[in-house]
Predict the structure.
Amino acid sequence: MRDIAVVAFSQSACVADIGAVNEVELIMPQLQAVYAQVGLSSAQDVDFVCSGSCDYLQGAAFAFVAGVDALGAVPPLKESHVEMDAAWALYEAVLKIRTGHADSALLYGFGKSSPGELPAVLSQRLDPYYLAPLWLDTVSLAALQARMLLDSGSITESDMAAVVSRSRQNAQANPLAQLAGDIGVAALLQDDYLLAPLRRGDCAPVSDGAAAMIIATVEQARRWGVPYARLTGIDQRIESHNPCMRDLTDSVSTRQAAAAAGVHEAALDVAEIYAPFSHQEIILTRALGLDEAIAVNPSGGVLAGNLMMASGLARVGEVFQRIVNGDARRGVAHATSGPCLQHNLVAVLEGA
Amino acid sequence: MSTARPDVTGIEAPVYLHYHFTAGTAPARFLVRLREGLLSGQRCPRCAKVYIPARGSCPACGVPTTEEVLLPDRGTVQSFTIVHIPIPGNPIEPPYVVANIVLDGANISFIHLLSDCVNEAVRIGQRVEAVWRPPEEWDYAMDNIRHFRPLDEPDVPVERIGTLPVSGPAVPR
């Protein structure tokens, strides 16, 4: 199997409303940034391009096609798209490289969530017969999940607030974060419920932005002569779309993906987890088998800023940056998709 | 158990979602200029092609376009079709001509109506100019230009369409 290297990553700041900027204008600065990190001039210099986005965010069919205007597709490119977080674009590119169809790939994800009412918009990505017609929004579904966890006695509201407090604290060192600050558990528990048992702080904010990454074979990374991190494992598992048919207090798919990706084959220093609700970070930390010694979401995670369709890729990017900066030697990145952690991807990165 | 119930072959699940759409920095620039009676494009810093309306990137090179280029309201027919079928909700009486028009100084066409002409005499390479609505009716909209009409000038050879230099000043009508 061909070894894969992450060689470049860039992410925009998470902002609540980027204003009169279209998706192409959102993507291009991130593409230019990753080209500059490797010394490439355009997407023509890689073998494959794959993006992740959601047309519902823009409210227009085939809106993702316009993203190609950011690439420079003359002459034509080998290009693909997932209607998912760009972490799954990474997965597609990894398969492409491992099967010998490409030596390098550009990935990007983008989401301008501010134009619509995000929880309602995402409800339309549920199963179209039973759940979408009920307009079950993401916050309501997460609140049901949090209630089940609290009622099972396996967490308390203070545990949830502790996740939020640590996110805000860590985000103080992240200039791209949207929410950061020194706020303790007691102060967070003073807030009113947004949708019991969730307080506003328990929910990721709505953010606009984009992220991009370049990966390649290790041989290609060496030819480019840039610092890189090896992607030693990646796996993704999906559970039933019907939330009533699975145990919402656990994440079996994450545990299976972690085992298949080889998360515990060596020691870990860092974990970046895509948990858009505080209680989900606790479920995921347990499913990934992370102990106290591992820094979880040192960036602040998505509770500090959540780029829809890019945050999963950004978790991988955060781990990559910590490894090439020498802050970590081996880390795990996680991405999620669907309601209540339905679909999960786990990637393991190690120093070169 | 009764098996007499009819099969469910469909359900109604209407979707209503509201969005605050924004066109983007580059398209907004184009629309603001249009309201001033000006046609504003952008030049690619790499290949020097001029796009109108611009989306903020050169889709061929994949680089941001920032240089504004004001264009005259004269151009050339790159292709056209004669519409004979009435379209529901469209107030224009068929038959009418829809044309791809490349403005002088631009390298890409846009679609607009071609009128004040003999439909059967419309041809690729034909020179045309904009017919604007009165300034008091101008909005952030392409129909500030009511339509294009033929100019009494020699046709442009096919291989030169989309390569002409700017032919005159860009001034509000």
About this structure: The beta strands of chain B are 39-43, 50-51, 57-58, 63-64, 67-71, 74-83, 96-103, 110-114, 127-132, 145-150. Chain B has two domains: 20-71, 72-165. The mean pLDDT of chain B is 93. The CA atoms of residues 42 and 68 of chain B lie 5 Å apart.
